[in-house]
Amino acid sequence: MNASNTPALPLLDLDLLRTLVAIAESGSFSAAAAVVLRTPSAVSMQVKKMEDILGRPVFIRDSRSVALTADGAFLLEHARRMLAMNRDAVARFVQPEIEGVVRLGAPDDVAERFLVDMLRRFSDSHPNVTVNVVVDETVRMISKLKEGALDMAIITCDGDAPDPNAEVLHREQLIWASCKGGVAAEQTPLPVSVWDEACTWRKVAITALEAAGRDWRLAFQSAHLSGQRAAILADLAVAPIPASSLTGDVVEVPARFNLPKLPQYALGLLFGERPNPAVEAAADHLRASFAARPSPNLALTA
Q: What are 217's strand-pairing partners?
């Protein structure tokens, strides 16, 4: 079909998305109306317009409460990212100069794979904001947030059940990785490289192996993605890692070895008690940066 004859998809404007977020966060149409400076009936009309565009409901409503449908929950993630991208772009031109220090916590793999480019761009647009990054494990970062030692943290979550207080920034498929041409995947028991019991990747990998009745042994432990890669490249073990971490001789374990499929995992954003303008600007930049990333391949095959 000629591209010029393909019907254009309808657009969801930012006002509709802003209303969706306000309803989800306030819990009612009337409370959301005060946030977006509209009447409750105007908010209802915006929701109807959204649902007409999408052809399906985004809220479940009764006389006392409002809840998101599954489609609404998906749209909420999209709405937050689109609004953050808009704020991040507009702030470059019209936002008063923001100053301050942001204490950001991040897991090792996030710091290695994502933060370098993201923080470089943030520094260009917000030269008077200093971001101090603390690389640590999710459990310890959550404690530091509660203690006031961090302003916000990117944490690793179970993709099916993220931390209820975390705002999802990114979802990605976990895969079994091995050395290209290696023999670790052929061994019985299967040599596995993971970190400690608190590691989300370890939990889902071991659960999958045990559910499949696969005999395994702990062959290598590292809290760092670079350590996992070292174990893989030395052909000491296979390891559960994000699909985007496959590079060079670190490849997905071929399907013929019948390793159980792993689920997605998520990266979530958590805040301390009182985000200041510098923290909010950095958070918007992270949301926008993750939203702008190409969609990860969630269905790799060997």
A: 191
Residue 135's alpha-carbon distances to 6, 186, 204, 299, in angstroms, are: 47, 34, 22, 29
Query: In a 3-state reduction of DSSP, which class is residue 61?
Result: strand
Q: Report d(CA 32, CA 298) in Å as an integer.
A: 35
**Interatomic CA distance for residues 280 and 36, integer angstroms:** 19
Angle between helices 70-94 and 40-54 (to 10 degrees): 110
Asked if residues 16 and 46 have their Cβ atoms less than 8 Å apart, the reply is yes
- Kindly report the number of other CB atoms within 10 A of residue 13's CB atom: 13
pTM for the model: 0.69
How many residues belong to the chain? 302
pLDDT by residue, tens only, the chain of 302 residues: 455 566 778 888 999 999 999 898 888 888 888 888 888 899 999 999 999 999 999 999 876 778 899 999 889 988 988 888 887 777 777 666 788 999 999 998 899 888 988 898 888 788 889 999 999 988 899 999 999 999 999 998 876 555 678 898 988 999 999 999 999 999 999 999 998 777 888 889 999 999 999 999 999 988 788 888 899 999 999 999 999 888 889 999 999 999 999 999 899 999 998 889 999 999 999 998 888 776 554 433 33
Spell out the domains of the chain, with CATH numbers in brackets.
3-88 (1.10.10.10), 98-166+273-292 (3.40.190.10), 172-264 (3.40.190.10)
